[in-house]
Write a structure and sequence with these properties.
By secondary structure, the protein is mainly alpha-helical. Helix content is 82%, strand content 0%. It is globular and about 55 Å long.
Length: 180
């Protein structure tokens, strides 16, 4: 379970790394156009406002992209992968699952990476500095997932896929987007 859990977190981090580096290349290419910067600023204000509205509007749901039925299906897929006897098949399954879950989750959490990459593109940084900042961003972005996983494994209490955490992350993300 430890190996599978760390594999899921690693593939999740890799998914975000690929998304953010691709978006950074787009921002470097078109980011200095004033209208693009203005559009991203408007996107940040709208996204931040929407996240704060979502926090106040909902009781305990977070990202509304995935229905409760799909969350249950994902939970069942995770259980099936954990009980897979062949480790290679289990690792491949968790990698595909992690990538697909994070692709869906990007729809809910794309605001901060978009703003972050715009800020990176606007500064005169080397390629190495860009990647180091992206790795630092991903480290802090994935830190909570890593801590929840380790605590769950140590206490043998899996929290499951809940939306309560996502609700609070909408509030925090919305406030950060408005500040930026």
């Amino acid at each position: 379970m430890w190996i599978i859990g760390f594999a899921f977190i690693f593939v999740s981090a890799l998914s975000y790394f690929l998304f953010i580096t691709a978006w950074l290349q787009v921002m470097i290419f078109i980011g200095f156009i004033a209208s693009i910067r203005a559009a991203i600023g408007i996107f940040a204000l709208a996204g931040g406002s929407w996240n704060i509205y979502s926090y106040w509007k909902t009781r305990d749901s977070g990202c509304e992209i995935v229905s409760t039925d799909k969350r249950k299906k994902i939970s069942q897929q995770i259980k099936d992968i954990i009980h897979e006897k062949n480790m290679i098949i289990a690792l491949l399954g968790v990698a595909v699952l992690a990538f697909s879950v994070n692709l869906i989750e990007l729809l809910c959490s794309a605001g901060l990476p978009v703003i972050f990459t715009q800020m990176l593109a606007m500064n005169d940084l080397t390629t190495v500095q860009h990647y180091l900042y992206i790795l630092l961003y991903i480290f802090f972005f994935m830190l909570d997932d890593l801590l929840v996983f380790i605590i769950s494994m140590v206490t043998l209490e899996a929290f499951g896929i809940t939306t309560k955490y996502t609700k609070y992350s909408h509030l925090i993300g919305g406030v950060l987007m408005l500040i930026i």
